[in-house]
Amino acid sequence: MSESTFHYYSQHAQEFADATLNVDMQPLYTPFLQALQDKPNSQLHILDAGCGSGRDALAFKKQGFQVSAMDACPELVEIASNLLNQPVQHARFESFNHVDEFDGIWACASLLHVAQSNLPRVMQNLEQALKPKGVMYASFKHGQGERMHGERHFSDLDEKGLAQLLEGLPSLDAIKVWVTEDRRPRRENELWLNCLLRKD
């Protein structure tokens, strides 16, 4: 995450949380949760990676999953930990270091702030954190290249860009790739690339 992006979220944490907390994400939860191993929810551990307000981690927790969450922004870590009523890890993707710990990793609209030159290493960190046969969900703004939008840096990906990224990650297989409209009101013209990846 660039320093300007980091600064943006630090300065607008509560505003960002308020704007995203009540967005209906169920259509995206469903394929992710269906792809997890066939065990009781209470036996499955999900990481919300770049959790923001903690909205998605809370949704998984309410369904009985074991949930962990992390974010790079201290202000959002505090908001999410209060929402979840549990500690949230303060960490950046580049320094995230867990091994074979999670059945599922949910990286919704968070990896898109990682510089494209860092994406392969960050994806390796997350792949390492997955248990064998674990599933990762990730989403990016649909497009190509890197850009600034206001203070925030974005790395956009399309289907070709995702395929190129995965060439360097042979243990991750794409089990579903699809494009959706933004779930927020009046943002329907913004398209997202969604992917489900399974670790060998």
Describe this structure in words.
The chain is of the alpha/beta class. The chain has a single domain (3-13, 27-199), classed as Rossmann fold, CATH 3.40.50. The protein is built from seven helices and nine strands; from the N terminus they run αααβαβαββαβββαββ. The protein has helices at residues 3-11, 13-20, 26-35, 55-62, 74-84, 119-129, 159-167, and strands at residues 45-49, 66-71, 89-90, 102-107, 130-141, 145-149, 152-156, 172-181, 191-199. The strands form two sheets. It has a seven-stranded mixed beta sheet. A two-stranded antiparallel sheet has the order 6-7. Helix 4 (55-62) links the parallel strand 1 and strand 2. The longest helix has 11 residues, at 74-84. The protein starts with a helix and ends with a strand. The mean pLDDT is 95.
Which terms summarize this structure?
two-stranded antiparallel sheet; Methyltransferase domain-containing protein; alpha/beta; Rossmann fold; 200 residues; SAM-dependent_MTases_sf; globular
